[in-house]
User: Fold these one by one.
Assistant:
Number 1:
Amino acid sequence: MSNIFTDEVKKHDLHKKWNNTKKEAYLYQKLSDNKVQCQLCPRMCKIAQGQTGFCKVRKNIKGTLYTQNYGKATHVTVEKIEAEAVFHYMPGSKILSLGNFGCNLDCDYCQNWVYSQFQYTPESSIKEYSSEKVIEIALAENIPILSWTYNDPAVWFEFVIDTAKKAKKYGIKNLFKSAFFLTPEAVKMLVEVIDVFAISIKAMDEAYYTKFTKGWLGPVLENTKIIHASGIHYEVSNLVVTELTNNNESYDRMIDFILKDLAPTTPVHFTRFHPDYKYTCVAQTPLEDVMNARKRAKDNGIVYPYVGNVFESDGLNTYCPKCNELLIERFGLSTYIKESFSKEDVLCNKCGTKLPVYLSREIQ
Amino acid sequence: MKSFSYTWDDRYFLLHLQINKEEGQLLEVKIVRKFCDNTTREESVIVRPSGVGHRFLVTRTHPNELAFVCFYPSISKLEVYKLDDRAYYPTHSFYAD
């Protein structure tokens, strides 16, 4: 942990100082008395003139809702797609990871709290990035995927939509990693432009969501079903938090949801947590906990369960679901596609079983 | 050129390296990985001209990889961050020259 939180951490409160009218929000309605109601997420914040919503990056300026983070980023980093808990889409690919600031949740253990909780974000960490600039970087470095990540890109909605649309013209894919605390309308707009979704379901417990994330579970599950029905590639990750969700009941609820409402072949990642932000009184999740979660998932019919934030483990590898041949070996974020896996036909060379792995790469 | 050496341990397998430079400078950084059979593998990272800070991920690629050395231009400075998690952006470095 390096971003240590205390009560003395400086608040820069940029949301109180900025009045950026560059980009009007896509999803909102105007109310009486110069108020607006944001419709991006289930909070449906009613915002008075001069105020922001919960996320602190959508601001009512004279009766119009503007995003304060359009064309601004805090992080633009080259990473690997496995960093987003995505193992079945262009494995081993470089991604351009993009992060901004603000969030419509406030998770007690947020590892990127300096940026997700906008009141703490220093102005020096924020840089201007146009959609064209982002695409130019990706093309110059031969990166096939833009990954909208770090803090939740849900509140970067307009910039994600606009940039993803433009990036498509160059054959660049878009990955959206999010807690999916959004309205269905927002999800449907994302479905039009996003190529792969990395869905973070924090727990299958409404009380947990209320207490530890300040959000609620129902919309997250409904949105996951929308994504599932869309046919777009997605993977689910669950952060296994020490003393909160590292128990069989939590694992089983997640497994049940995937089996009943999604598909047994949905890749699911049980990921180790580390202490951060306001939840630092416990240790990192023991390896055996995520391995146990994975085993329970496998024993109950989940075909591709994985572990995360682990360097070396069987739980990182992809095996043939029929003959158990090792097809894709991973160490940390490094991926080794074995000769037993046919990249041309996307199947196990030993028994011929086809696998739900997307391997295509197109850059124009 | 300056260099930074790091030996992997059981706890951390992800690092962010950040090259701090002047706007407009195009630089090249080399990562030389060392393996337990005494072999090495070299990679090049191009630091784009725009911007004054360029951060990239260095991940341990295999259990047989024991360490790496980063060679970077003398006109730039290096900061290194340990990552506890994927998709994590630490703000405090453990090394800075």
Number 2:
Amino acid sequence: MERREFIKKFAATVAAMQLGDVISLIPNAVAAEVPTAALSRLRLADSIADVLRVPSVCLNCSNVCGMNVLVKDGQILGVEGSKTDPNPQGKLCAKAHGGVSAVNYPERIVYPLKRVGERGSGLWQRITMEEAYEMIAERIKPAIAAGHPERVVFHGGRNKIGDIVGRFMNAVGSPVVLNHRALCSANKRAANLTSIGDKDWETVDAERCRYFLNFGSNFLEAHQGGFPLMRRYVKAKAAGAKMVTFDVRLSNTAGRSDEWHAPFPASEGAVALAMAHVIVNENRYDAEFVNAWMNVSLAEIKTFLAPYTPKFAEEASGIAASDIARIAREFATAAPACVAFTNRGTQGHQNGFNNERAVVLLNALVGSVGAEGGYAYGGSQSIKGSNFPEPAPIPPKPKFSTDLEDPKQYPLSNHWAKMKVSELVFDKLLKGEHQVDVYLSYTIAAPQNWPEGPQVTVAALKDEQKIKFHACSDVVYSEMAHYADLILPDATYFERYTIDARNAYELQPYMVLRQPAVEPPFDCENFADSLINIAKRLGPDIAKYFDFDSYAEFVAYRLNSLPKRDGLNGFDYMKKHGAWVWEKPKNYRPFAKTLSAEQLLGTTVENGVIYQEVKGKKQAIGVMQNGVAKRGFQTPSRKFELHSPYVEQMAQQLGIKDDGWPHFAFPESMTQRKPHQLVLTTFKWNVHTQGRTAPQKYLTEIVHDNPAWINRQTAKRLGVKSGDFVEVTSYRPVSDYQVHNPSEVVGKIKVKVVVTEGIHPDVIAISNSMGMNYGGRIAEGRNGKAAELPAFAQAEDADMVNHIWWDKRRGGAGNGFNPNSLIPINPSPLVGNQSWNDTICDVVKV
Amino acid sequence: MSYRMIVDTNRCVGCHACSVACKQEFQAPLGHFRQMTIYRDVGSFPQVKREFLPISCRHCEHPDCMVACKNQAIHKVDGTVQVDESRCNGCGDCISACSIGAVYVNPYTQKAEKCTLCLHRLKVGLQPACVSTCVADAISIITDNAPIPSNAVGIKNRASDTPRSRHIGVSQAMLDKLQEGKPFDPHLYEIDQWGGV
């Protein structure tokens, strides 16, 4: 029988499949019809007086805000802010509300599907969950038996089930747990780790802050931790605080700042160092902090900063020297209730690590590190196993690493925290550097979100020799699921348990529990439970670590280590209240705390640093200050490290020119840029989270298209107006990861432009999160009926039949463009953070 | 009891939470809006700012939509303007009468819909969907004779408008984006409509 005879005539909904049915899940052109059905679902407006409120936690972005899920008759009707989570203070963003539509999305995957036909052909056969577990187990067992557990690879995004994933991979014996951190925040984290030794990043004490000096963070839209930060910034602003933003693009944050400055891309470090220069040379620094807490002397600081004058920064950035000096003075005057902070605009460059360190330095110089209203840090609750014990026996960690998850070329990525360098993964696989027998992917839309994703990621995923077997758990038929051999139907975050916490913006530790508001429908299952079920089939040596029935039981065990509260054990308390707060004083200036006699037992002092023996290793735990033992920073010197001996040493070993000071230098591609060429930058919207939210109709209705932003002057030169198309050609970087000829093309796309005043004239900006190839009618921007077969929840969503007003075939704007075919894999030196914002392009009118 | 909405656009951060919470509350069909937050860029590079306007029915003291309705389907309750769906025949006269486009006819039910000020929530002691979620406290409800902020004004697109809601910090250029006699236009969300050039 010919393959096409298997395919249903129309795009069928997955829920109606019978066992063994084959279905095509790739887009087709079903003619749109006039809707006849009215919505039959309950509305929140008709039910608000008698809904059930289930305390839980959002996961539509990384802010993980506490929320009540509003349920009636087993249906989720909406969400509202939770008053028990101290971070969002009872408020929620658009994404939190929009996420509700993921639950009843007609194109949701609700059965396990086995690939038939070639990988990526979009043909699937329904199987049972039992068959799916067996299929995966039967692939893992031979890799272990062959002595190659590292050929079992897990690759996950922000999924919050790290506890069970870690246990699973440790039990298998594979260290290869990949993530997305180097595509996000590795430079920022590495800069904080180098300077102050904190493993997360700053938690701005925003409500009490009076001067926000913002380098490239768009926290009113997209910053990690942005929502609780925004909540407190708004209050500070109403009380008279000032914000100055440096960003190449007018984000909402820049557009609402008291001042917006658009520096040339990657020049933020020069600006920050020049501000430091002004603060030091005009004696506006905090002498107490500089003398007591920095690991270098004032004279050394002055020598280091000498070349970085405001004039130098003006030449690098295009920002007037007088403005740079004025802002430095204003910032120092507001100290210590002031903060200089960053995000992707500053770190997403080859020089991002030093840009970040230069900004952190400003806080040190004015004494706002850890201060009330300043650059606070720490004080959050870690939810790792040592704080919330897991059921015994606990599998040991593998005693080896591979270059896939721990690339030795980027030592700072894994020195303090396992950040990995995951933008390299697919390139390494294609080059045959690592054999993958089993690739388990979860909450990671790599073909969409990775640099060179449409080329390199897709090529690796399609190659059945490089990746022998790929199982993907997902909620919708995503970019990733399309290239799998087996799709597991995941539970949405409304249908599963997870323990969660993040930067505590009240500077008091807290944690939250995500719990099911409804049961997962059909065969849908929390991937954590799928992993447990697979592990039980991997033989007694592995199954012994999974002697519990469900992930819920595992979570309950962990939470029941909490003391009883209100007569309830930990799990029951968390289910009832959703959040747990430890009543402690706000975590100001933790470095200045005096160590107790008990903490000093058995310690030794060398060059003023207090050491303790832990498991035979000498560990610094404090520092002597005028004869008093203080905690200090968690750096090797226990001081704020402006000069990093560790960085210097690592650079030396790798033959990289770096003396351990955060000098400023442009990425070489920038210095070789021809005057007519533009620098490509990417950005996130306030209603979207990369690959995750495109199928959610109320969000995608607001942003579905992403024309390229270009400045009016640039548009004039190119002879284009809004709505015209340009062809963008991008080039390889000329330094670092695989040195290339500057004329080597990475990609070429034709993209619509929008002409704006809100962007630097040398920059072209194309957002991420758009241009989906898969994900259903909303993500793809096409009207049509889910024909012939009854839909999920017994109702088609009439909105998707005929009301997708941005459908291109109806004259709408369409579903946008994916810029990632233009952006080269470009890790920054030492850390390996993807340099998103360094790509040099030629742009011509089509 | 009488209610009045106050919108401080100087506080607004343009996050769209109000608009999406509203959609989720009422399941307004795609392309139809009881409430929108629209953007406008002001100035020339590098002196540029972005303005936001959360906009919905202003609950006029003497609503033109109420006068225009031949079926007496629109009436005033507690300072708000409400549609009685049992009387509405979906003719759309109310749409033409509104100077900002705050009413639409639901294509599924053929009934006029617009902001109700979430009277159903206010009656059970909850804030409207938009108010309760607003991270910036930019939208609020005051009752009876509570003082109105001195810088808050009624948005008028016609001299005869009698808005009860009050807005702070709305520019005339932003107001010019609102169209008389047509429902809120979804295309106002397209970035090329943010203005500036």
Number 3:
Amino acid sequence: MIRYILKRILMLIPVLFLVLFIVFTINYFSPGDPVSSIVGAEATMEQRARVRESLGLNDSFIVRFGRYVLNVATKLDLGTDYITKRPVRDEIFERLPTTLSLTFLAIALASVVGITLGIISARFQYSIFDYMSTLFSLIASSMPAFWIGLMLLMVFALKFRMLPSSGFNSPRHWILPVATIAFNVLAIVTRNTRSSMLEVIRQDYITTARAKGLGEVKVIAQHALKNALIPVFTVIGVQIGRTLGNAVVVETVFSIPGLGSLMVTAVKMSNFEVVQGCIIIIALSFCVINLIVDLLYAFLDPRIKGQYMKAGKRTIAKAAKSGGSANG
Amino acid sequence: MKLLEIRGLEIHYVTDDGIFKAVNGVDLVIEEGEAVGLVGETGAGKTTTALGILRLVPSPPGKIVGGEIFFAGENLLKKSMKAMRKIRGAEISMIFQDPMTALNPTIRVGEQIAEVIKQHMNCSKTEALSRAIDMLSTVGIQPERAMEYPHQFSGGMKQRVVIAIALACQPKLLIADEPTTALDVTIQAQVLDMIHDLQQKLHTSMLLITHDLGVVAETCDKVAIMYAGEIMEYGTLDQVYNDTKHPYTKGLFASIPSLDKKAGRLQPIQGMMPNPSDLPSGCVFHPRCPRASEICKVKAASMSEVSGGHFVRCILCENGDMEGK
């Protein structure tokens, strides 16, 4: 198991390197010029050249990319914000908690409600409740987050003045942005739980459980749920990644000082190192979340756990063998 | 004493493509301590009958539309779901066809057995688990394997676990639905012997569903031959095997290869099982029956008793024409 985790963590390195390369290349060839944002439009050519030189922008692509990767790899240094002159790492870590709590609140809400709705829909297939929840998920998953956000703002913040429209200081501020993100995810989780549950309910071991005389609640909660949740967790994992990306939109709509709004401002100012840093952190979070989801499978499904264990044992056995022969 | 008596049981599957009449007026009696074999081709309605007894026919689309099922004198079809749950697993339990899919892959084997004990025996979790482990050794599995998961067991071992679950609460009636079909031939005999021994030891009645007449001959006291949702012939082993009356049963025996007779070709029954959504008029077997006459196409046969306890559903027997053939 530990070997498996280590292997997966090692695999993060090439993935992150590739992400770095792509983002860096796009930044390199994109038209904006950070120097104008730093010195202003009235600066002389001389001033511009001096700033350009001090930022190392005159070096070739290879040199700049190499320097950046080296800094990230050896010092975990994500570069410097051209405008505020502060380390990008500090700026990101100031804002990361906001984005993460927004994401996880929304995902938690969507998962709990979505799984519950999905189970009830599947158990009472073709009932009024099932039709209503299917219709609701269809509508909710068809609406883009920025539109839902704007609608919620109009209704609850502008019209009824029940909730604040911007900021992220108190639980009251959380409601609208969390609801905006949760809406989409909720729809997807509901639909997936329903279909997965319907498949599991038809399995023979559910008939076995019923033939034991177990009540319906026990059949669903103890026998069906554990098996049905495995594919649902995959979906939730993917949705967490999508939500981190969606944060850009939602944080802009609700003026939340998170990673997303940091990134949007940085893009506008051609503040390349900040953009790169944000994307790397989002990519890293995505990978880590996927790893956690994969490990969760092992706890839900002993067959998968067995596979991890076996794979580990096999490599250990192989290593022991080759080591032994080398000694002999 | 009659433990189970089924009268005129009818189970239909209602789908968009039509009504599939899986079970059409089945009558069946199982005495206490007796083993009855229910034999028929695939799709004859054997499993549906069994699920009907436990009221576990998947609904929708399945529906019990008529008949009565008396178990220990009480009509199961009139019981509430709560009362049914007290019977399932405790009084009547079932061994399923495919052990590969009958066990929950995410729950430890011991817990799956303990669950049924805890449900019905009113005992603590630890006590249920220790009884489950006893049950495992009864079916020949080492106690330490109770903490393993189904995927760590072979097919034959899994079926032993299923048997352990079925017998854990010492039920009065055991329904074994083709318990050996999914198993290796070498394991089949082992598992059958075990079911037979345990059934004798616990004095449990058994309904053994199979399409293997040889298996029935080894383990059962009585046999019912089922075709297209109806019982065609019912009697003791001796009556059905040695004094075969119904043309369908005769066809079944003729299609079994014999070790002592030198036969060039097997004699299959001509034709196919009818589609349960479009059953033939009159006797359901008439399109395939070598002795069918005009009347068979219009008049459905009823059960007639040809000798003490030997029932046959054939017009020829009703008229007494069967003799001399």
